[in-house]
Amino acid sequence: MRKITDFLETFRETGSYRTPVERLGKQRKNGFWTSLVYNIRGLGGSMARATWLSHRGLFTDERWQECGLHLLWETERMGTEVIIEGFEKLKDVGPVVVVSNHMSLYETFACPPLVGAFGEVAIVLKESLMKVPLLGQTFSTRKMIPVGRKDPKADLKSVLEKGEWFLREDKTSVLLYPQGTRQPYFDCRKFNTLGVKLAQNAGVPIVPVVGQTAFLGVGRYTKDFGPVDTTIPVRFACGPVIPVTRANAKAAQAQCVDFIASKLEEWGKIEVRR
Predict the structure, then answer these.
(1) Model confidence pLDDT, tens digit, residues 245-267
(2) 4-273 sits in which CATH class?
(3) pTM of structure
(4) Nearest Cα to Cα of residue 234 among 104, 145, 139
(5) Mean pLDDT value of segment 3-12
(6) How far is it, in rounded angstroms, from Cα 58 to Cα 64?
(7) What pairs with residue 82 in β-bridges?
(8) Which of 44, 85, 117, 213 fits a disulfide with 106 by CB distance 3.0 to 4.6 angstroms?
């Protein structure tokens, strides 16, 4: 597996990354076999390694980052470029609430290592993932805030209470996906205000992160393992650090949504519903 320290050392300094020409494989033709290879070698490889390490008590933060970034390296092997920008804004700002759009399982694994390069991070994720055999135990070794999505009030209380503890007491950033269900498009109206509420309660800034991960689609029979489109670059961009108060909460929410929508429109390929 590619040495993670080399990547992180440069990434922490610059906050950006673009696939070097020498690391870009020959672009694979879209189709069943390309999707199968990536799902087994990329997603499957990350999950299997994470599970193996956690059951041996070796699943440290560094190994977690390594497993997540493995998706990027496998993407490059498929001949698809990876472009990351703007994460230098996270340097020396302390714990923050990070809100991101949610297209596929890709960013569930790939986004935490990018945020975590600048400090510890806790993830808000579906409670059902914690119950998956073997993989659930792996997730339980990391800082997580599980939500059931059956009782919105209970989920809200859990995220606000546990999230505030992570931010205030544990000095750990919190990453969440306010639109909830994974969608191959971005609907501005369904990007809820949970992140802003958490940031306001904890007295920390909010930071929007946008990911274009249509490279890995949502599957027909299972959402987690979907078709691969090697013609769409994988992109992540980190937006501004936005202070949140009671007075500017609505404006902060609008700024987060607009950053994500504008970037997706700039990059193309993805439908944005304003």
Answers:
(1) 999 999 999 999 999 999 999 99
(2) alpha beta
(3) 0.90
(4) 104
(5) 85
(6) 10
(7) 234
(8) 213
User: Which residues make beta-bridge pairs with 260?
Assistant: none
Q: Burial level of 92, CB count in 10 A (0-12/13-18/19+)?
A: exposed
Structure tokens at 39: 């799902």
Angle subtended by helix axes 45-54 and 61-77, to nearest 10:
160
Report pLDDT digits (tens) over 211-250.
999 999 866 656 566 889 999 999 999 999 999 999 999 9
**What residues does each domain of the chain span?**
4-273
Q: Report angle CA 59, 210, 132 to the nearest 5 degrees.
A: 35
**Are 2 and 73 within 8 A, CB to CB?**
yes
Q: CA-CA distance, 223 to 105, in Å (whole number)?
A: 8
- Residue whose entry in the numeric block shows the structure tokens 């205030």: 168
Supply φ then ψ for residue 219, to 5 degrees. Answer: -70, 160
